[in-house]
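Morning F.,

Quick status update on the modeling queue. The single chain you submitted on Monday has been processed. Sequence for confirmation:
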Amino acid sequence: MKGMELLRSKEWSGKFVDCALRFALAAVLSGAQVFGGYAPLALGLTAAAGPGVRGLSALVGASAGAFLFLPFTHALRTFAAAVLIFTANNAFFDLKLYRRRFFLPLMAAGMMFSVEFVYVLRDGAGEAANCLVCLLLTALGAMSGRALLAPEEKEHPFAALFILLGVLMAFSSYETANGFAPGRIASMLVVLLAAFERSGAVSVPAAVCIGLAMDLTAGDGGFTHAAAYAFAAILVSVTCRGNRVGSALWFVFSVLCFALPMSAQIGLPDVRAGDSVWWHCDLIHSVAPVAGQQGWGNVMYIPAAPWCPRNAAYAGSVREAFRSGSSPDDFPAEHYERDWAGRFRYEQLNETGRRGLGYE
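Structure tokens below.
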């Protein structure tokens, strides 16, 4: 009975709501992954949740969401960073320095970097750039989360928007079998609402931020969403602000202007062992980024066909490169195979291979 009375008290009911909110937000924001497995906004919210049972709720939520939404190795890294952030919160929360506005974002980013540092050293400059962006997002997430969750903080107008961005990113990563993404539809509606209700000075930056968030989630390295949303916000703000029908029509038109060219790119179906994909060398093509790839993916480039003097000369240069394990003349001079043990050699060529390289 005393337990029930305690739960019904204002103090404990308020604390329960706070903990549930932090758990749910951290779990959802773990789904807002960027660069194939980082969850910086969830770590930022874990920092903003503070010490004690409220912070523990965010830690459990971020960890559960990480193992639910992220690749396993990234989930472990997110869990490790979240534990460090929670530990630092409990260690420093009673210091004057902790109350400084800059301390919490820097602490959250520092704890994340202490986990990711080893992987940055291993993977090189590309991973370092990704990590730097994620550190910035972690810091911004901590600032926004603190402004949103801490009652003593002054209300910041962009704090709720930043957390909303994270929620939209989490839902945009989910797609149905036919390619329908509820999160991206919701993000478009938010942009349309902002353009309809607010001036261009507010709606255009909001549209750019939301579009960049969708591009980060898509992971294709482009800025299609940012460009489409910004163009839509500008058109609606300039021509049809306050006109519901006109705003909707302009918005659909501007999004289609950017979306239709993308539909001209045809994706390949899933391939299995033994499958091959062929395309003409003069066609424009691209290779999408792969997250969590296991093993090697091989690309065979066979340009020397049909047989003619030009291709015969090229086959001769490839023949010499093959003997030494060097890269062909029309490839970057990476020479991966020169020092490889067990490299494929002339003696292993069959009759077709010898003919193709001009040995026979």
